[in-house]
Amino acid sequence: MALDDKIAQSMEILNGAIAEHRPSHLFGLFSGGHDSLVATHLASKHPAFTRAVHINTTIGIEQTRQFVRDTSRDRQWRLLEYTPPVSYRDIVLEHGFPGPGGHRFMYTRLKERCVDRLVREHKTKWNDRIALITGVRLSESVRRMGHVEPVKRDGCQLWVAPILHWDDDDKLEYIAREGLKRNSVVDTICMSGECLCGAFAKKEELFELGEAFPETAAVILALQEEAAAAGVHAKWGTRPPGKRGKATKGGMLCSSCNQRNGLMEEAA
Length: 268
What we know:
Helix content is 46%, strand content 10%. The protein is α/β, with parallel strands linked by helices. It has one domain: HUPs (Rossmann fold, 3-Layer(aba) Sandwich), CATH 3.40.50.620. It has a 6-stranded mixed beta sheet with strand order 3-2-1-4-6-5. 45% of the residues are buried.
């Protein structure tokens, strides 16, 4: 499909979700990655668009947070920024750094609680629907399975993935066509770095962070020292000793981690 056809398909997804569920708000969940950039930009063209929303996990690269703020300002998107009720630092000092088995726990504490607050603050009645636009895109191998849908309702949360079936070329062509500024963090380390919980960190990831973003790496290194003093697992990006449980899947805002680590993505 040509890009114009993909755009039309995406708007059909948005229109269909709104027509069927009639949400009172439509939020673009803007992590700072290029997928969420495209999805939020598409959503902003819809008359129902409310605001862009960024979840500040408290363990991310500051340049990405600033990219979100600058882009929202330049595009005249009103921006809401949420932080979890308990910071990553405090979670680590109590529980230690997570391994793959702690991924779901970190997702719940750092992201899910922020989404719950967003929805709670904007519901207008008990059976309201709040549309949450994500940049979830599925790998070709998953798309071929043929059963993943771009709209999923979970109570009053209406998750919509308008670019679910776009590929990398579609995304890059759209960014260029619309004149969207790219996030230099993504171009440097191939990820937005908005969440560095470490559950699925690569072996050399902390070293690579230190090379590209030394201030961020320094935060993690300092936290390792604090964690060691607290007597909890103190090495970021590693599995806690004695814990060999299976990797756990994060929710809708950890799609890239889920797919990269062989965890099947749920319907949008």
